[in-house]
Amino acid sequence: SFGKFKGPTIGQRHVQTLLLFFAIVANYMGKFNAGVAIVAMTNAESTNPNFPEYSWNEMERSYILSSFFWGYILTQFLGGWLCRRVGARITMFSATLGSALLVLLPPWCVSWGGWQAYCGIRVAMGLCQGMIFPSIHAHLANWCPVNERNRLGALSNAGIDCGNLLAMYLSGVIASSSIGWPGIFYVSSGMGLCWCVLWLVFAADHPHQSRFISVAEADYIENSINASRKASEEKLKETGRIPVPWKAIWTSVPFWALIFARCCQNWGYSTLQTEMPAYMKGVLQMDMKKNALYSSLPYLASLVMAFVYLFISDLLLNRGIMSITGIRKTINSIAFFVPAAALIGVSFLDSEQKTLSVILMCTNVGVNAGSTIGCTINTIDLSPNHAGILMGIVNTAANCMPIITPLLVGVIVKDESDRLQWQIVFIISAVVFVAGNIVYVLFGQMVNQPWDAPDFMHKQQSSNLQEQGHAKALEAKQSEMAEEAKRKELEAGKEN
Question: CA dist 96 to 13, 103, 127, 128, Å?
Fold first, then answer.
């Protein structure tokens, strides 16, 4: 019924989506520039020797890379709460402005506060950026007509790979330029601040609040969303507000299989994401410009492969070639096993085989893009009614992995030019990928779980009451039989 609403082909909803895309790009530039910045800050000769150099050891570098996520996991739910209280427009603006101002600080603070000051700044940045994705989802919910949600959602989330790519490539180019490594922070901050201005001018919490939208488009969006809400409200009237079956969720084996798979995926992905520049400089002995280009190529491969996976899965599903279970488990197996093999391959290469190393790293990150279709959106299969809650739990667990992986690298890699030390890191990641997929294939499910049913809690309570009733009836009968036996004994005693 939503298809009957027609609106302008291009309009303000696309402007909002584009703003969300650039919000992710700008924030990711600040989030992931540290991998390249640390290499430049600890080895000025490799970039621009006119700027200060710091002699941080591997463990100190690892604390810097990990520290962002200490703050990031704490504000996921706060972001959703603020969106409900003050709207996504103000929440997004405040979070991005805070992050953009903080990323300006390292060149000024590191000179007197050392690596500890840099850690403190990145924790605060993480606190700000933890609110970004809840805000993006809230904003899309208010602006996307129902039949365009997938397309507009995918377009805004393409900013993730684009942000990764730019963070790696631009950071290296800037560090090698006349403005040196401090320029990485100035440009990252400038991007965030420019986005804040555009957001204030063009963003609005709801279509009817926008100054630039046509009446036809505002009606189109709101009629579509209202029709969807009306259908949801009618369903709610029939079923009542659906209570969250917390015990059933936490004891669900398929849900734990999903959490485990997502954590394993994030383990492997975050190891490369944070450590690739250090590995390319140390083992492959690349200069910063080449390092920046080759560190960004895997994310270009990921961007392309995301659309390839989408096309293939749609084809297989629409033509009835495979079920959703077959598609998810097959694609997830490819997205986990191929990167595991590529990581083991990379661990045996050195500076003589640079090209093959880069090809294998592109294969790793590119093929791993299938994990989005493979396991990330499995929450919708398990429970459409509780998908938001499941996603919150899974994302919080998965985002703990980028805290651990850099710290583990800091413990294992004491000399970044030692290939054997990096070999241990990559083989651990490969084993984690394999374990994650085996558990997911064996125990994961792509069907609605019994606890998704709106009346699950009611039925469970009824079943419990029934059981209690049976137990009480049995107890009463046993008590009656015991009394009868006593009475017979007394009668027998009297007769004697």
Answer: 21, 11, 11, 7
- Roughly what angle, to the nearest 10 degrees, separates helices 253-282 and 324-347? 30
First-to-final CA distance of the chain: 86
Structure tokens at 55: 């002699």
Asked whether residue 5 carries a pLDDT value surpassing 60, the answer given is no
Locate all alpha helices (DSSP H) within 319-353, ordered by sequence.
324-347
Handedness of CA 406, 412, 417, 419 (dihedral sign): negative
Tokens of 332: 């997830």
pLDDT of residue 3: 46
User: Residue 135: exposed, middle, or buried by beta-carbon count in 10 A (0-12, 13-18, 19+)?
Assistant: buried
Q: What is the C-alpha separation between 89 and 96, in angstroms, rounded?
A: 11
The pLDDT tens digits of the residues spanning 177-224 come to 899 999 999 999 999 999 999 999 999 999 999 999 999 999 999 888
Show the 3-state SS of 247-303: HHHHCCHHHHHHHHHHHHHHHHHHHHHHHHHHHHHHCCCCCHHHHHHHHHHHHHHHH
Alpha helices in 368-455 (DSSP H): 371, 378-382, 387-398, 401-412, 419-443
Determine contact, residues 277/168, Cβ cutoff 8 Å. yes
pLDDT in tens, 222-277: 888 888 777 766 766 666 667 888 999 999 999 999 999 999 999 999 988 888 88
Residue 117 pLDDT more than 90? Answer: yes
As a whole number of angstroms, the distance between CA 42 and CA 40 comes to 6
As a whole number, mean pLDDT of residues 278-306 equals 84
| CB-based contact 30:99 (threshold 8 Å) | yes
- Asked if residues 350 and 283 have their Cβ atoms less than 8 Å apart, the reply is yes
Residue pair 247/346 in contact (Cβ under 8 Å)? The answer is no
Cα-Cα-Cα-Cα dihedral sign, residues 373, 379, 381, 384:
negative
Residue 334's contacts (CB-CB under 8 Å, 6 or more residues apart) are: 367, 370
In this prediction, residue 236 carries a pLDDT of 62
* Residue 13 near residue 145 (C-beta atoms within 8 A): yes
Residue pLDDT, tens place only, 128-173: 999 998 899 889 888 988 778 767 887 888 888 899 889 989 998 9
What whole-number distance in Å separates Cα of residue 13 and Cα of residue 5? Answer: 15
Cα separation of 245 and 475, whole Å? 30
pLDDT score recorded for residue 127: 96
Helix (H, G, I), strand (E, B) or coil at 320: coil
484 vs 37: CA distance, rounded Å: 87
Mean pLDDT across the chain, nearest whole number? 87
